[in-house]
Every structure is written in C-alpha cells, then in structure tokens.
Amino acid sequence: MTIPFRYFPYLVQQLVMDHMDFIDVFSLYFASEKSKTLVKSFFNRQECELIYDLDTVKPRILINKRKSLENYHYKTRNQVAIVPKLHAWKHVYLFCSFMTIETEQFQITVESCDDMYKGLMRFVRELFPKIHFSFEFGPSPLEVIRRNMRIAKALNVPIERVKIGGKYWWKETIKEKRMRACLKEYSDVKTLIVNVSPSDFQYDFQTNPPFKFDLFKLSAARWVTKDHLINLFLGCKKVYLRDYRGMSYTELELMEICEKWLEAPETQYLGIQFSQSFSEGIGKLPGAVPLREANADYPCFGHRMKLDPGKGYMMKKADGTPAIVYHDRSNIVFRTDFENAVVDGTF
C-alpha cells in the first residue's frame, strides 16, 4: 500500500528529504504551498554553499550541501545548478542536477531584474539562511570581482572562498592592481586561492598587515621572500606556496622560517612546493628528532610516509604542540596534522 508523503511524521519527512537527490527536493519546494513550507523548514537547517563560477564559458551558480564536499559520489546527488536566462521575454531560473548540467529539469519565472545573477543570489539567500558564498572568478576583471563581492556583503552572507585565476594559471598574467586588491580587499574571507601573480610583483610586508586566512593558496609565489613569509603568512592556519619556476630559500633562511613557524601558534600547515632544497640545519634546532615515518594527508594523499635520513624531523611548537618538518619529493612541509610518527631516539 502506498502512503502519501504528506502523511509521514514531520521527522520522517525531514529524514526522507535528506536522502533525496537535491534537485528533487527543489522540485518538491515548487510543487505546492504546503510542500513549500515543509521544504523551507528543511532548507532552514541546511548549511549549504553557493558557488558562483565565472571560470567557465557560461557563468553558473551551483548549490552544494556542505557534507557533499567530502565525497564525490555524494556530491553528484547533492549539487544543483541554477542558471538565469531570458526565455520568451521572461526572466527564468533553470534548475539542473549536477549530472545533467546542460539539461533543463524545471524552471521558474521571476520578476524582472537588471542583474539576474544579483537577483539569483538574493533568491538563494532567502531559501538558505545558513548559506555561505564562494566565488570562482577565474580571469575576471577587477570590477566584476568587486561588484559580486559587494552583492554578497550587502546580503550579509559569509564568504567562504575566493579563487582568482583560471585553470591554466601558469599561462596567465595578472595586473599588479588586481593582485594587490586581492590581498588587501578580501582579507575577511576564510579561504583565498590566487593562481597567478605578476612576475615582478612587489608587496611591502612592513606597511601591510599580516594575513589571517584559514587557508591561503598562492601560485606563482616566487615574490614571497623569507621576510614576506615570516611577516605576512604565519597568521594563517594553512598556507600553500608554489611556483613552477621553483621556490628558492637558502639553508639559513629555511632555518629561520622553521624557527618562526614553531613560534606561531596559529599556523598548522606550511607547504612550500616546487622547492629542490632542504635545510639539514633544521635538524640542529633545539628539540629536533630525526623522523622516519608518519601518517599525513596532502601532499601524500593519506599514505604513510617513509623518509630517508636527513629528510624529516619531529619537534615541538612553542605552545607544546607536536610538529613535523620534512622534504617530500619537491615539497618542504611544516605541519601539526599528522599521526603515528616514528622517530629515531626519544621525543
């Protein structure tokens, strides 16, 4: 015997919707006024992420369930694309599932709006009180970036992540004004990813405040000297620096970077990629014990590391937190997020 969905107890309805494909929950929202009220209560407790992706041929907005970010298969069922279009002289929002991104599944007509993406962000904000915004700006001009950031702040939505630069970052260039604006104007986002930098970029670490990001990824980072790194980056929780031309620090500079990183309580991870050098002098720092093995994720992808002699050390940060420093392939890594370390000697 089939039981209509509306006859289920409220908690059962919420549990069922939690296991439905996200696109089907949206279709239920627009089915009737009663179902709209029910789904709205479901949306009220969802911590979702809006991704405004301009790094594509056609800009699109994606809605992700937060937990779907951890699993690709789950993500395919829990991501919805919403595309604003002008259809038959009417403004409409097309709703598509992740798997049928180019296939319309259903649409709704909306009031006329000079900026349909602005209207769409407002629409999503009203649906999801706990939503966060993320922007994939790609090579967008500075005025486009600033306009969308202003819209998000006007809607009083936390900005989770901003990504500047396209997929082929090593082929792109960026003007110094745009680069400087990225570093100065987006200091309140949690994650900043900058995939390009001017080849001759200059940034004064004495007159600019230190960064405070949860995660900061910077490509084309050769302009980051030892003094830049120590004075600007060690207030972030996690930092990834890379440059396809190679990052160059002397042995004494790496030792000083290590000492300052150990003194910085905020920084949990510092990765310097595409660096061919590793300071053996790090092993001479007070409390350093040779490291043989440890479990850690990126850049080892969860595998157990086995290090050659002189390639890794275990030590303690100033607040007593255990830490490891090691050279893996072409990466020098300083981190506190590891497990099951094996050392030579007593730690």
From TrEMBL:
Taxonomy, superkingdom: Eukaryota
Name listed for the protein in its UniProt record: F-box domain-containing protein
